[in-house]
Amino acid sequence: MSERLDLLADAMRRLTPDRVAVIDRLVNRLKEHDAGTSAPRVGDAMPPFILPDENGQLVSLQSLLDHGPAVVTFHRGHWCPWCRISINTLARAQARLEAAGARMVAIVPDREQFAAEMKHDANASFPILSDIDNGYAMSLNLAIWVGPEMEAYIIDRGHSLPDYHGNDSWMLPIPATFVIGQDGRIKARFVDPDYRKRAAIEDLIAALG
Predict the structure, then answer these.
(1) Which of 5-9, 156-160, 181-185 has the lowest mean pLDDT?
(2) For 50, phi and psi rounded to 5 degrees?
(3) How many CB atoms lie within 10 A of CB 73?
(4) Stated pTM of the model
(5) Quick one: pLDDT at residue 8?
(6) Which runs of consecutive H residues, i.e. helices, occur in 123-177?
């Protein structure tokens, strides 16, 4: 996954350096304010959730843990090219993660119709859950306000978060991944305010071993 993400990042730096500068400024602002550092850590109990999937069916963390460990991933949305690469990679790796005993879910702030679109496009068979208003992400200290410059950037790219989210807060989750043991405690985590970076599949499998 990291190679594909790096290729996209390198291409953008060559072709659209002005756009990359906007992303860099957002990332630097988030890092200066330690965004994501207070999210649950390894050894902590993962806060529970009950969220609707792309079909409106409720899925809970406990329902996943009833079958073994869980991998819970947060994504910015179906419109984000970095997230599409991540979801596609996770979909291809799902059999390996399940062979290690894990159930997996992805969480987005999008409404169900867009979660369904993301799942269909990735040919994924794991649930994609809608965290409307970023309530669960906020409880984990993962929700951030994009700010006026990034808002303008996203609009310029032809996307409308209010349409996708059903609110005009312009908030997104920091992409993050948690590996949770069947005892409900976090075995590994990846949290990075630079949304161009994502957890490596090999690291997830190692944490499940």
Answers:
(1) 5-9
(2) -140, 110
(3) 24
(4) 0.93
(5) 59
(6) 135-139, 147-156, 161-165
